[in-house]
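Hi Q.,

Before the meeting this afternoon, I wanted you to have the iron/sulfur cluster prediction in hand. No need to reply - just skim if you have a minute. The sequence and ligand are here:
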Amino acid sequence: MKLEGKVWKYGDNIDTDVIIPARYLNTTDPVTLAAHCMEDADQSFAQNVQPGDIMVGGRNFGCGSSREHAPISIKGAGVSCIVAESFARIFFRNAVNIGLPILESPDAARDAQPGDTLSVDLVGGTITNQRTGQTYQASPYPPVVLGIINAGGLVPYTREILGIEITG
Amino acid sequence: MGKTLAEKIIAAHAQDVTDVSAGDLVTVRTDVVMANDITAPIAIESFNAMGVEEVYDSGSIMLVPSHFTPNKDIKSAEQARTLRQFADEQALCHRFRVGRSGIEHVILPERGLVLPGDLVVGGDSHTCTYGALGAFATGMGSTDIAFAMATGTTWLKVPETMRFVYHGQRQPWVGGKDMILRTIGEIGVDGALYRAMEFIGPAISALPMSDRLTMANMVIEAGSKCGFMPFDDVTREYVEARATRPYTAYFADDDAQYVSVHEFDLSEMEPQVACPYSPDNVQPISQVKPEQVDQVFIGSCTNGRLEDLAIVAGMLEQSGREFHPDVRVIIIPGSQAVYLDALRAGWLELFTLAGAAVSTSTCGPCLGGHMGVLAADEVCVSTSNRNFRGRMGHPDARVYLANPAVAAASGILGRVAHPDEL
Ligand code: SF4
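Predicted structure with the ligand bound:
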């Protein structure tokens, strides 16, 4: 699958309290969560993000609490994919589990500037910066992660491995 | 080749294999699966969406409402109700109602619900706390928890292990909180990303369980997957008084492989403080500007245990002083049991007479939830574990993380203060 979107660039150690503050965690509704996504770091994000845009982070993106509300709010805001130098462990799993594409590439993340357009090929794991023309290879996924991604997230993956048919 | 604690516990729980090494991807059995009032609602949604009808084991799933409880608003009341309804439907054995409960990471060890050698996954990043007992315990998100509730398993990458050795005699007012803050200050908030942290050395052997729980609690603040204290007499004594099922103590081999070894000498170490806005922005207290404080919070799963409250009570008693009239001091025992013990010891009266607000057990202010949310530009000294921007309220509020003695001294003097200043 190919994605293309404008870059929203953030720094190192973007924590889940910044992505979605605890004061909004009394709901699980993606639309409400999306409206407050990144609010304490960047007020303009939730207002101006366009469907398909790509979030770029530095090291340890998504550190802090285990709240799945964080990737849900980013996905709910319409972001198609996150590229970062590295991801905090729980955030990485959460994003994969809810079907939000997530790619680790230190060079692609460092070189990307706000407003750049990135093209991402999820099958090949490549990221191309349209401004510079440069293409980067993201770190490959471990097999189990690939299985979850291919199934479309951990919920459909679980149904697959437990042999549960979708009804209704 | 020898094995680390992480490798041994994971191997004992692995499906299909009997031997694992760092880097292996394995499916493991879980002994305990935990979630709270923030993470469980999504876990329950995911569980239902998976189409699974029954949880894998009704005795091993613990849904603990502690963040917005006693409920702060209608939505959080509905979230807590979701947990209770699910617990009823699935006939879960363990229930954690307001008035009979506490903060998840305080009550699970306290009640012997997590034990040495267990493999625990929790829908909360501070699940790593149970490593103090010699359990492999790690935080995950809600959908991972739903998978574990459905199957009694999860997948893991076996972590590499970093070893931390502590020598020397602890100085007055220095405890587990200072040791872990110093460690995080040294390696940074991503210094142990994807890895396990093993704590050893004479100063660890001499450390009481409450301080060990404090240290293991904060390994996630270095990005770590889990942390371990070696099983010893302190562990045995703590666990024997509580366990209601058998457990296994694992020990790292002498020739286990560590990615790095870090040594600390405590003989010269003073109390440590993490300054705004990161748990790795750590300074010895003598180097921290004595800024005026608006609020002091003593509590949380990091330092809300009886031993923490004992330090505060001792300082008030010995100094004969009250808290500063301009500071809002909020003291929250970490569980109903801690509350009762503190009550019987006379400390809740002492705190109240000294001008503190004492509350029933809740996470509350630790995550800026309720019971002490900060306004813009306010300064707080907190015994909790995170001082990210916006964590305890307004993004421009400034939080200093410290041990209970520093927090109490700051509450008495009205500024960031060393306990010796009293
Ligand atoms: S006390 Fe704070 S860190 Fe601990 S579980 Fe509650 S919110 Fe999380």
